[in-house]
Amino acid sequence: MRALRILLVLVVVLGGLFLAVDRAALWYAESEAEDRVTISGDGPATTEISIKGFPFLTQLAGSRLDRVDVNLTGMETSAAGRTIRVSEVRARLHDVKLGSGYRSATATRATGTALVTYKDLTAAASDGVVVEYGGKGKAKVTGTVEILGRPISRSVLSTVTRVDGHTIKVRADEVPGSGIPGVEDLVRSRTDFEGDIDGLPEGLELQEVKVTEKGLEISVTGSDVALTG
Known about the structure:
InterPro entries: DUF2993. The chain is built from 4 helices and 11 strands. It has helices at about 1-35, 55-60, 120-125, 185-190, and strands spanning about 45-50, 65-80, 80-100, 105-115, 130-135, 140-145, 150-160, 165-170, 195, 205-210, 215-229. It starts with a helix and ends with a strand.
């Protein structure tokens, strides 16, 4: 019985040591990954990495991680020649394969969301154009046009759509005064616009755009997503 008690104590101690070493290795790996993640956006972004699954050391030994969550905050990119800020990107990467020396990582598949606020949309739009939430899944776009030498402000409800894997479009549903020749094109030149959302980790593409009270919530998905390298 005494030998059994000693064995149990040893198992508990060794288990505790393994857990401590595993968690310390996980913390170090997450910290290193945050410094190595590369994105193509122009501005600085804060990166948070969370590696899921237990134990971590066995995953590391096999050079394959079950899941990695990546949060990017404050990323800046370019749209239609203007800087646009993507306030937050949350991505969940599955089956992440680690490269030689752990200097690169590629996820077999990934899903996530990106958020562009109305303030940042306004900053990326034409001068004098304001983008707000219009209710019922619509964006409200206000712009000033000059008609017969007089500046006139017009607000329209607009639909936001995904054009392709990198581009979104904002287009007014109806334009006031569209029956007057030339007026519709003039108003749309101020209220309609589209732009690319670049700078996401390589392999991620836009899937769907939803207009919410906070801003544009963009679903992203991808395969063979490069996390670093």
